Structure prediction request, 379 residues.
Amino acid sequence: MTMQVYYYYPFSALSDPAKLYNDLRWNITRPQGFEAVMRVRCSQGIQVQDYYGNFCKRIPTDIDLPAIDCNKAIMVTLKHDDKLQDGSECAFQCALLYTTVYGQRRIRVTTLSLPCTSNLSNLYRSADLDTQFTCFMKQAANEIPSTPLVNVREQMMNLCVNALVSYRKFCATVSSSGQLILPEALKLLPLYTLALIKSAGLRNDGRIDDRSFWITYVSSVSIPLAVPFVYPRMVAIHDLDSKVEGGSPIPPFLPLSSEHVSDEGIYLLENGEDALIYIGSSVDSNILRQLLGINSVEEIPTQFVLQQFDNPLSKKLNEVINEIRSQRCSYLRLKLCKKGDQSGMLFFSYLVEDKIPTGGQSYVEFLINIHRQIQVKMS
Prediction:
């Protein structure tokens, strides 16, 4: 079994056994290997700068992994140290030597060849937002144990600003300094950066256990799971039976802002580890009865196990939950939240586009701040 930290806080003997069972089952049965050694090689002109993740490093060129599984990712940063010919290709190769669960010694080699360009516009046009942002997250997780949180937040802000300054300086066609210009491929980078700054790992008011789990999780998280962990997905579930049939059972995602949360609605917010179901204070009693089997907001239980009732709305909610769980590597914990108590405050703490009482900027304020810093660096 590969080592992994699981976090159940606060643990509920009623609602958490299913997650505990499914997490343990997946930990044992998922594809994994042992006694692994990994090395990354590059074409001339590029060299490995650093590795990020959970591993042991005894020599500069290799990393040792007592165990590795399909959910873990190692990030490798590269350094450009020599001239590359425009129009040529550079290659990267990752070799992983490991032992299977059946005791067979194997090597897996992955090779990637990419074109070189001296045109910065091409680079920004082909930028991968999720990969770029995951790089920010892992660098933050690496810095937190040894650097004051205010400095880590500032570093993340600078990484975002510097990427946008380079685009503005060398690629943008609009010359007006009063306009914020974002590259199409990275237009959500400021939003994700704001979410990172407000995340449990970087908040001053967070519990130390929450921060410790955040660091452990982010250090080895894969790209598909990284962004939702700090910028969760939120959907309305009170009107699931009115959604158009066909395709994914998951309805369209909503921006993480209280403007999109109505007192008459019920909303599901999930980050890959937890799923919060927020119940507005004026929800129709018929909808509550169909989804949760209760008649009023006052009857909302503190501990919750999702059931399927004999009605279309309940069946569609279960389909949505099952679909999300199939996309994640963790069996989501379900928590009910309501306005006016601690659970409601937890839900609204994930709405990162809002201004928060402890001084966190709204998304609009953050964009203005980003724009101001770009103007300073351009002057």
About this structure: The chain has three domains: 33-118, 119-213+358-379, 214-349. The longest strand covers residues 89-100.
